[in-house]
Known about the structure:
Chain A is flat and about 60 Å long. Helices cover 73% and strands 0% of the residues of chain A. Chain A has nine helices and no strands. Chain B has four domains: 6-87, no CATH class; 104-156 and 425-469, Kinase associated domain 1, KA1 (TATA-Binding Protein, 2-Layer Sandwich), CATH 3.30.310.80; 169-273 and 392-412, Sandwich (Tick-borne Encephalitis virus Glycoprotein, domain 1), CATH 2.60.98; 287-379, no CATH class. The two termini of chain B are 55 Å apart. Chain B is 32% helix and 35% strand. In chain B, the strands form four sheets. An eight-stranded antiparallel sheet of chain B has the order 8-7-6-5-4-18-10-9. In chain B, helix 2 packs antiparallel against helix 4 (67-95), helix 4 runs antiparallel to helix 7 and helix 7 runs antiparallel to helix 8.
Amino acid sequence: xxxxxxxxxxxxxxxxxxxxxxxxxxxxxxxxxxxxxxxxxxxxxxxxxxxxxxxxxxxxxxxxxxxxxxxxxxxxxxxxxxxxxxxxxxxxxxxxxxxxxxxxxxxxxxxxxxxxxxxxxxxxxxxxxxxxxxxxxxxxxxxxxxxxxxxxxxxxxxxxxxxxxxxxxxxxxxxxxxxxxxxxxxxxxxxxxxxxxxxxxxxxxxxxxxxxxxxxxxxxxxxxxxxxxxxxxxxxxxxxxxxxxxxxxxxxxxxxxxxxxxxxxxxxxxxxxxxxxxx
Amino acid sequence: xxxxxxxxxxxxxxxxxxxxxxxxxxxxxxxxxxxxxxxxxxxxxxxxxxxxxxxxxxxxxxxxxxxxxxxxxxxxxxxxxxxxxxxxxxxxxxxxxxxxxxxxxxxxxxxxxxxxxxxxxxxxxxxxxxxxxxxxxxxxxxxxxxxxxxxxxxxxxxxxxxxxxxxxxxxxxxxxxxxxxxxxxxxxxxxxxxxxxxxxxxxxxxxxxxxxxxxxxxxxxxxxxxxxxxxxxxxxxxxxxxxxxxxxxxxxxxxxxxxxxxxxxxxxxxxxxxxxxxxxxxxxxxxxxxxxxxxxxxxxxxxxxxxxxxxxxxxxxxxxxxxxxxxxxxxxxxxxxxxxxxxxxxxxxxxxxxxxxxxxxxxxxxxxxxxxxxxxxxxxxxxxxxxxxxxxxxxxxxxxxxxxxxxxxxxxxxxxxxxxxxxxxxxxxxxxxxxxxxxxxxxxxxxxxxxxxxxxxxxxxxxxxxxxxxxxx
Lengths: 279, 473
């Protein structure tokens, strides 16, 4: 059993969880929700196992580094952080409907990692620039930030769907959590994500200063992470100081997540120092 | 601080904050799409004369240092400072009130209140409830009422300062960056193995800056993984002060050398042209060549002059020396100083002959009847493209940034400030216990300045916990 096989299973588990969360919402049944929760829990556990096994495998080959060094590994970790964060939200807010909007993102990340022809699941050695203790701190914090924004995105979509048809009584939409709770959840997730994005940018800056001698060089990935930071900073100020809530916040959260996606994927098509993220 | 000053009014607005944040986000994108600080020719070729002129005027090619971008940053800082000062005085009074007053009316207004009853009178519960409130909240006040008592308790009033801490951190980042750009420098130096520099070239102006000490590169090594990907770039450096070695360190990427506030980073490397010692003492006046005739194995030494043909012994024709090149190339490889001549056999076409000074066997490769070489020169083995023989230079980034510690303290303060602002709130709780026959009717209410839903969950928890307390017998 190698890590790639375990991680293929994770793709399946998240896909199963996503399907049953949607089924639980559509058919208003608790049984699929329970199955979905177990699939998500098993997915997260195996995801962690696959992550650890891959770490060990890299030592066996003689490269010896945390599996956080390329696109495949980052997608696996992204899916893991979404899984963990979602299970936390489900437990804390006692609602499984959010699962129908959050677990599909984890599934898509895993499916993209496993199926895209441009992404290699081979364990590669670390290039000199990545050989640093900051690697783990930087990537882990960034991805907790990204995944919080991903969950916030899912919840914002729910908000917009719910608010659009709130007048006419529709069973499917009526079963979505209340607008107030969705709005609050978006806000909570954005705050969590903002804290972690900030720590991610900061650890990256400290790392850059020890590797390249400058903590900020306006490299496209740095700049895009800052753009993302500005968008969410706008959201937080608009909400706390101007009293924005609901739809406006949901739209800002969606724009923010688009910036996250560009920081994550789009930047690889631009020239810059972070080019190893594309391999 | 209420002011009618129009400048103050302009900067105190949160609309301005939103506008500035979004403008910075939008304009920052430009520099990620158009590569920055490239050669003007490249831009001209790419955008054509009109757009090139326009972008050039707007400093688009170095936009993060353009006046308009820096102005946006300056406006943001002014906005932050003014907003913070404007609100801080009010917050300050809230955080450090002369005397703490709990207002029951604020709790009464709450939509959600937890309510339960306990089969014990209020007197029996008072000590346990007070102790609980003290443990969970710290600051408390107990008031007697007609039917029982009320406990008010609160904690984390100071967390209202969180947002000012975040704002302070942003200002520290900007101040640190300004200190860095005023009192620091960014330079680079390429040092061949075995050589040293005491100047670096500045990145922005191209000016040479004396360091006040000398950096010598003893050795540069590059290692590869079996995949061919680079594994490590390592430079062995020595710092010299007045020709005395004071520090020795191997630097690799991610592990720089810091000396007297200056940091030296492994940035790049390159191969030196494999040029040997310069042949200054070599004179073209008195050149002697060795002619080795293959058939007899005899070696003849002949004096030659440029442009004058000499006869080759044993009837192998004539040789004319054409020129001397101190740095000749052979198949794209530098082979150092070399002679170039033409061999004209008695029969057949003349051939061109290259005679590197340091490689006497070089002409054997021609597989001719005669092997010609330059006499009385130090011999070396000619080994094309042997990696071990390649002489490297190390590319060092040499920087000084006295503002970096201000920036780093900004980083720490920002993380702490964000945590306080987002996840801690000023929480107040009110537990009201009233006698109802032999029992007590308990109401628990809580308010927080942030995260109302989180506070509601907390109040539920507290109520659940209190309901289990039995109190005094």
